[in-house]
Amino acid sequence: MSEENEITTGSFGYSLIRDELLPELLGNHTNEILYWAGKSLARRHPCQNEGELIHFFEKADWGTLELTKQKNDEMLLELGGPLLKQRIQKNNAQHFTLEAGFLAEQFAMMKQCQTEAISQRQKNNAIIQFTLKWDAKDPYGMPLRKNK
């Protein structure tokens, strides 16, 4: 079996849920809910450093994450890889706010200050760029859970 067929077979169920079912269920709120879900996943699967974060993305089949630029209060990361390329080309994947929320919360926990992330697809290729911004003057605090 060729590598492309293996990717197709292995990712079919994931793509059905992620790119077809969730947007249909969540409708106009897809991006907001996926962003929140990404933050929630990050709290349940904390990474200690960028290396662990890159490994998590690969293990979760989200793609290959790469740091491309960093400033004092901003960072650019790119997500690519064969699975992501297939999701975009075959399923017209449009929502990457799950990954953005995950990144925002991971870096908030690592840097101990509020962090937000936005995702943007690079035109004409299967690369998603994430811009993360943080405010060192705004300390991070874990969200409190409501007691039932």
UniProtKB/TrEMBL annotation:
SUPFAM superfamilies named in the record: Ligand-binding domain in the NO signalling and Golgi transport
InterPro entries per UniProt: DUF2507, NO_sig/Golgi_transp_ligand-bd
Source taxon at top rank: Bacteria
Protein name: DUF2507 domain-containing protein
Origin species: Jeotgalibacillus campisalis
